[in-house]
Amino acid sequence: MKKIFILIFCLFTINVNAFEKETTFNKELFNKAQSEGKFVIVSSWIKYCSSCASQMKILKTAKKEGVLSDIKFDNIEYFTFDVTNKEISELLKVQFQTTLLIFKDNKEISRIYQ
Known about the structure:
The chain is an alpha+beta fold.
């Protein structure tokens, strides 16, 4: 019986995190942000990944509030996508479920895997 409760709890946690996630990546907006000289952050996720949801929540909150510590987010665009979306994954050459990409001046300046 205890194992069933643990399993239900785990499934509920995964589903709650999945609701937080949505694909916001749009190639036209991505290109526009880069042409405007903005930093562009792109994070990939997959529905069962709780660390992906946590990472996205922090970045969404930072963008919404406009600051994170002493970093201003007025010159940063943030996009997310489901890594199972093959078109976006191939465009950005992302192979891992939790990947964070940072672009500046139309160039990728950082790629972080978790």
